[in-house]
Amino acid sequence: MEVSIRRDKDAVTLVVQGEVDFSNASQLEREIACQVSPTVELDLKLLEFLDSSGAGAIVRAAARLFSRGQVLRLASVPPEIKESLDLIGVFTVLETMERKARERKEESGGDQ
Amino acid sequence: MSGGEESILTVAREVHQALLPKEVPTIQGLDLSGATIPAYAVGGDYFDFLAADGALFAVVADVMGKGLKAALLMLGLRSTLRSVVRLKADHRAILEHLNALVGEDLSRNGAFATLCLGTIYPGKGQVVLTNAGHCPPLLVRGGTSAFLPCRGVALGLLGGPPSVETLSLDLTAGDTLLFYTDGLVEARSPEGQKFGRARLAEAATALGHLPAQTIKERLLELLEEFTAGGGQRDDVTLAVVKLQEGR
Predict the structure, then answer these.
(1) What pTM value is reported for the model?
(2) Residue B144 and which of A12, B3, B103, B221 are 20 to 30 A apart at CA?
(3) Residue B27 has pLDDT above 80, yes or no
(4) What architecture is domain A2-107?
């Protein structure tokens, strides 16, 4: 797995290339979770394989980002990987995390 | 690996294997068979068959990750599910309890579990299925087959009531249900080709007229041939439930 990073003003894009599995999923989690930009985009167009450990890494990293008021978005997900993530319920989980983070922000008057 | 670690894994493997069904329950009208093949010494996959008032409760589950950690979490899931099933018949209530009890353990360990539950009533010719983020079960009927559209979120990913779908459908004599884990359909050939759901459906359709044990053995042989020399990357579990003709 290789992760290249592209930084813009308020966002950072992590382009993940190769295979993510049990052996390197925690490395991907660290790469995502250490970002400090308000929006973190995970560009998966060059991803060839992602197993359940990889899906877990994305969910755990997303939980950390959303808890800090940041946003994680997945982009250019290859169809087979999208199907696997959808099957597990990862997109539902990310939408729920984002909605709860937005509600928390609204409750606190948007001063986060 | 040290000798101590090796002996821990050996014991864990023995426990894991001992807890898988050695003999399937005898339920009039049903023919059952199942197997789990861990990729390492132990794994997070399991299947279970439980008899309840003439019905069968079947489960196939997959705890995220590999090795001892996944196996320990799997044992917690299995024991809790076995207890809850005896107290609750409704799938939604079972999963709600399971997500509250095991989901928290999974979440605290940065893991999740996918599982598919099926209650099969051979007398009524009916099955009730619930899926929590797991591969869709395959129904083989006559010369055709179809993956059953039943979805949901894996346990441990969201708190509160589980976000799952339940599906009820009628079965006819000779129907075969296949429950499996992603290790089967995601397995790769030495050239990197995926075994895939289409290959599973095609093979299972051709084998549908055979007894459950033969279907299981032939599918696992086919998988072995397909992956020959490529090594097993993930745990593989397959459970076959067949509604016998003339039940």
Answers:
(1) 0.90
(2) B221
(3) yes
(4) 2-Layer Sandwich (3.30)
